[in-house]
Amino acid sequence: MTSLTHTLPLKEQVFERNGTRLAVIEAQDGRSLEESLAVLRARIESALSSDGGVLLRGFQPAGVSGFDRFVSHFGRALDYEFGSTPRSRIENRVYSSTDYPADQWIDQHNEQSYTRHWPARIWFYCDVASTRGGATPVADSRRVYERLSPSLRRRFAERGVMYVRNYGNGLDLPWQQVFGTTDRSNVDRYCRERGIEYEWLDDGEALRTREVCQSELSHPVTGERVWFNQAHLFHFTNLPQGLREALLDVVDEDRLPRNTCFGDGTPIEATMLDEIRAVYRDTMLSFDWHDGDLMVLDNVLMSHGRAPYEGKRRVLVAMTGESGAGKA
């Protein structure tokens, strides 16, 4: 009897740029992901541990429900809690990847690395590819760590990263959306349980949180050291200059929707942020989405972003395997 491994026509290759590698498994006969699961499972696990990500292409489009079912074979999908970007729940625990405007670039980041709790894996499904742009670039967090200067890494490791967020001022996500509740006592409980410093402002209409988190960590399985934070993304200098100046005309710096500093409250030098962004740019690998593509990333080993786009675009996301700072 011939095994399925030999009868399933798959083409395997690797997309690679400046040290970032993404494994690609492409079906040659358009069969479904579910039919191919027995063969794909081992190959996905292998690619995740070595390259940090794998792209599945050429399979029969799964749709939202099929994507949801496929992800469920690899673990329980997570809710999107304490989010930093606007997302819509599509079905069960499948969300839009982001509801940010199409003309905005979202820099490289590991999902929820601005907290001390994050998903182990993040899954993307391209339901509708945009007519132009709209890539989800990836960058290997190990290579980013290696290419940052030792002095910068040491400074961040010694002090950590403090994330300051202001909700309810009409400039960013309202706290009701971020915490998924309209009850302030639920927010109090969530913050206390997770060690997040918080204060209610403006008679309870606005909320500010501060949390000191890791700058780097070791992968819980491979032990490899990775760069793992969003200091450059949350810092107010990441805003376009015009928007940044307009915001500072309206609010004081401590009222900006989000910002970062070192864990002891001292400012992060602009040269450091520039270096981090430059290393991400140099390490970033980008590819065009095809309708029906599915990509899974080890969220510790691989960062992701989003390029601006034109036309319709529908990329969905799911997350599995909760992890946390206890593994740092």
From TrEMBL:
<feature type="domain" description="TauD/TfdA-like">
    <location>
        <begin position="25"/>
        <end position="319"/>
    </location>
</feature>
<dbReference type="InterPro" id="IPR050411">
    <property type="entry name" value="AlphaKG_dependent_hydroxylases"/>
</dbReference>
<dbReference type="Pfam" id="PF02668">
    <property type="entry name" value="TauD"/>
</dbReference>
<keyword id="KW-0045">Antibiotic biosynthesis</keyword>
<protein>
    <submittedName>
        <fullName>TauD/TfdA family dioxygenase</fullName>
    </submittedName>
</protein>
<keyword id="KW-0560">Oxidoreductase</keyword>
<keyword id="KW-0223">Dioxygenase</keyword>
<dbReference type="GO" id="GO:0051213">
    <property type="term" value="F:dioxygenase activity"/>
</dbReference>
<dbReference type="InterPro" id="IPR003819">
    <property type="entry name" value="TauD/TfdA-like"/>
</dbReference>
<dbReference type="InterPro" id="IPR042098">
    <property type="entry name" value="TauD-like_sf"/>
</dbReference>
